C-alpha cells in the first residue's frame, strides 16, 4: 500500500494522530502538498462520504474522520500558496429562522470543507434577509438551508422568495436538507436540490457547480 493510500485509510478510520504523523512524514520526504491533499486526505474523505450515505458509518465516526482530515490540512496549509489551495467552490449555509438545530448542518459543513469547498456558516435561526445579505457579501455559487422542524421548513420558501425579490435567484443555487425535508418539498418551493445527508449534499454541490 502506498503512503497516500495509507493516509486515506487513516482518515477513513478517524486516526487523527496517525494522519498527522504520516502527513508530516510525507512533507518531510518532499511529497507535493496538493498530492497529499488530493490522493491522501481527500481520497479518504470521499470514501467516508460514500459509507456515511450508505449507513455504513455513523455521525461520531464521520466527525473523527473530519478531525483527521483537518489535522493533516493544518500542517499543509502553510506550504500552499492561497491561490494554489484547491477550492471546489463557495457555499453559504445556515439553519433557517426559528430553528436551533445544527448538529446535522455542522456535519454538512465538515464534509463540504473536507471536499475542498469554502464554506461560510451563518449559524442557526437565520432569517431570509440575513441569507440574502450573505449572498450579496460572499457571492457563493450555492446556498444551503437546513431545517429540522416541520414548523420552520416554510422559512426555506420565504428565503427563496426573498432571493427572488432581490433579483439574486438566478445568481445562486439553493439546496435544502434536514430530517423533515424531501425532494417533493424541494420541487414544491423551487429549490435547486435536496440532499438527505452530508455526503449527498457534497455530491449535489459538486454537480450543481460543475
Ligand atoms: Co429537537 N426536535 N427540538 N432538539 N431534536 C427533533 C428534530 C424532533 C424530531 C424530536 C422529536 O420530537 N422526535 C422534533 C421535531 C418534530 C417536528 O417538527 N417534526 C424536535 C423538537 C419538537 C424540538 C423542540 C421544539 C422541543 C421543545 O423545545 N419542545 C425544540 C426546538 C428548538 C428550536 O429549534 N427552536 C428542540 C430543541 C432541540 C435541542 C436544542 C435540545 C437539540 C438540538 C441541539 C443542536 O442541534 N445543537 C435537539 C435535538 C438534538 C433533536 C434530535 C434528538 C436530534 C437532531 C440531530 O441532531 N440529529 C431530533 C430527533 C431526531 O432526529 N432523532 C430532534 C443528528 C443529525 C446528524 O441529523 O440533523 O437530521 P440531522 O442531519 C442530517 C440530515 O438531515 C442532513 O444531513 C445531516 C447529516 O447526515 N441535513 C442536511 C441536515 N441539514 C442539511 C442541510 C443540507 C443537506 C442535508 O443542505 C443544506
Draw up the topology in text.
Elements: H1 3-12, H2 16-28, H3 33-53, H4 59-76, E1 89-95, H5 103-114, E2 117-121, H6 128-138, E3 142-146, H7 154-165, E4 173-177, H8 183-189, E5 193-194, H9 198-209
Parallel strand pairs: 1-2, 1-3, 3-4, 4-5
Helix pairs in contact: 1-2, 1-3, 2-4, 3-4, 3-9, 4-5, 5-9, 6-7
This protein binds CO-5-methoxybenzimidazolylcobamide (B1M).
Helicity level: 55-70%
Question: Which percent band covers the strand fraction?
Answer: 5-15%
CATH class of the largest domain: Alpha Beta
Compute the separation of the termini in Å. 32 Å
Looking at the overall shape, the CATH architecture of the largest domain is 3-Layer(aba) Sandwich
Q: What sequence of helices (H) and strands (E) makes up the elements?
A: HHHHEHEHEHEHEH
Radius of gyration using CA atoms only: 18 Å
Strand arrangement across the biggest beta sheet: 2-1-3-4-5
The backbone outline, from C-alpha atoms, is elongated
Protein name: Methyltransferase cognate corrinoid protein
GO molecular function: cobalamin binding; cobalt ion binding; methionine synthase activity
Pfam families: B12-binding, B12-binding_2
InterPro entries: Cbl-bd_cap, Cobalamin-bd, Cobalamin-bd_sf, Corrinoid_p, Met_Synthase/Corrinoid, Meth_synthase_dom
Amino acid at each position: 500500500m502506498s503512503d497516500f493510500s495509507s493516509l486515506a485509510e487513516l482518515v477513513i478510520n478517524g486516526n487523527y494522530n496517525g494522519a498527522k504523523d504520516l502527513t508530516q512524514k510525507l512533507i518531510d520526504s518532499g511529497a507535493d502538498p496538493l498530492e497529499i491533499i488530493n490522493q491522501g486526505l481527500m481520497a479518504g474523505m470521499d470514501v467516508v462520504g460514500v459509507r456515511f450515505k450508505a449507513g455504513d458509518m455513523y455521525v461520531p465516526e464521520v466527525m473523527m474522520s473530519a478531525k483527521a482530515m483537518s489535522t493533516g490540512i493544518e500542517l499543509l496549509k502553510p506550504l500552499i500558496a492561497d491561490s494554489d489551495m484547491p477550492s471546489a467552490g463557495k457555499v453559504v449555509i445556515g439553519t433557517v429562522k426559528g430553528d436551533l438545530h445544527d448538529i446535522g448542518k455542522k456535519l454538512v459543513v465538515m464534509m463540504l470543507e473536507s471536499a475542498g469547498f469554502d464554506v461560510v456558516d451563518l449559524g442557526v435561526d437565520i432569517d431570509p434577509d440575513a441569507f440574502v445579505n450573505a449572498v450579496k457579501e460572499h457571492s457563493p455559487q450555492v446556498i444551503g438551508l437546513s431545517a429540522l422542524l416541520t414548523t420552520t421548513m416554510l422559512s426555506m420558501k420565504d428565503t427563496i422568495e426573498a432571493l427572488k425579490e432581490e433579483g439574486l435567484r438566478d445568481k445562486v443555487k439553493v439546496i435544502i436538507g434536514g430530517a423533515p425535508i424531501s425532494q417533493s418539498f424541494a420541487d414544491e418551493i423551487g429549490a435547486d436540490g435536496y440532499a438527505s445527508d452530508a455526503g449527498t449534499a457534497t455530491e449535489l454541490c459538486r454537480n450543481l457547480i460543475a
